[in-house]
Design brief:
The protein is α+β, with helices and mostly antiparallel strands. It is 31% helix and 13% strand. The protein has 10 helices and 9 strands. The strands form 2 sheets. Strands 3-4-5-2-1-7-6 form a 7-stranded mixed β-sheet. The chain has a two-stranded antiparallel ribbon with strand order 8-9. β8 and β9 form a beta hairpin. α6 packs across α9 and α8 packs antiparallel against α9. The radius of gyration is 21 Å and the shape is globular. The chain starts with 21 loop residues before the first helix and ends with a helix. The relative contact order is 0.16.
């Protein structure tokens, strides 16, 4: 599968500033390993308004994780913790590192997953490049998966796309320091949505006993992808199911067929009446919304 990427704008920080986790990129570069972001933070680059916990997640080639490459980090800004010292939500990862004297990142832990545990192959997966570790607002980096991207009549619904980030919503947090400095040219990748969905379905169907926290997160993130990308709609469902692995297709097809979206209501004019609407169908909205949209699209 061909890799895709998006290059963000340069930081507003001065040229002498270093990013909070530049040292992690340095370690990975030393071993010719890409920075591949997964988990809750990566989910926000897939158009999903995902919460984040106290950790961010990366995946490492299994043989390199076994060599414990982060123990060669001279900065020691993260230190390893045994599972007995960790909250439950950190214990399914292969390695958990705790930040040491590291302020301004917004995360206390780094969870590291092996390829074997996460069920992806670093050298054979499709990645998308994103401009920052944690987006202040959720964005869809792969706009080809946007539910309204092919609409010819201009009716827009669904998440904000990354290429339009600066139109309304900021990428960079006003309160958290930049993870990567402006002089750091190492890319930050997330898995493509198709690759990520394959991994999530595996976690949900194979890890409920061995790694229950991982399976629970997978269940929630699958639901989020369906919700925010409208995967139950025929044009989205057919496109996704055609491209994922057979096991994922067999799981997702009945899942999408029985999925029921939470009803949404819109107030009719100045009345107190509510009208049931569908985000993807402009004709389901009140007449004044239709007239306003028709005027704007002409």
């Amino acid at each position: 599968m061909e890799s895709k990427w998006y290059r963000g704008r340069n930081s507003d920080l001065g040229s002498d500033d270093e990013g909070i986790i530049d040292h992690i990129f340095n370690v990975l570069n030393r071993y010719e390993h890409p920075f591949v972001l997964i988990g809750h933070v990566a989910h926000r680059w897939m158009g999903c308004a995902s919460f984040v916990d106290e950790a961010f997640d990366i995946v490492i080639r299994t043989h390199q994780l076994q060599r414990q490459i982060f123990r060669s980090d001279p900065s020691r800004e993260f230190s390893e913790r045994g599972h007995g010292e960790l909250p439950n939500y950190l214990c399914d990862a292969d390695v958990a590192l705790k930040a040491v004297d590291l302020e301004g990142l917004g995360f206390e832990y780094l969870r590291i997953w092996s390829e074997e545990t996460y069920k992806i192959k670093v050298d054979h997966s499709s990645f998308v490049e994103v401009p920052e570790l944690h987006p202040w607002s959720p964005f869809l980096a792969e706009k080809e998966h946007h539910p309204a991207i092919l609409r010819t009549h201009g009716w827009w619904y669904g998440p904000s796309t990354l290429d339009k980030a600066y139109d309304r919503y900021p990428i960079f947090s006003p309160i958290i320091l930049r993870a990567k400095g402006p002089q750091n040219s190492s890319p930050t990748f997330v898995l493509s949505i198709l690759t990520y969905l394959d991994a999530l379905v595996y976690h949900k169907t194979h890890c409920e006993i061995s790694k229950p926290e991982l399976a629970s997160i997978a269940d929630w993130q699958i639901r989020n992808l369906v919700r925010y990308l409208y995967l139950e709609l025929p044009h989205q469902k057919n496109s996704i199911l055609f491209q994922v692995e057979a096991e994922t297709e067999n799981y997702m097809q009945p899942y999408l067929e029985r999925y029921k979206r939470k009803p949404r209501y819109h107030l009719i004019g100045n009345t107190q009446e509510l009208m049931l609407v569908n985000d993807w169908d402009p004709k389901s909205f009140p007449d004044e919304i239709m007239r306003r949209w028709t005027t704007c699209s002409n």
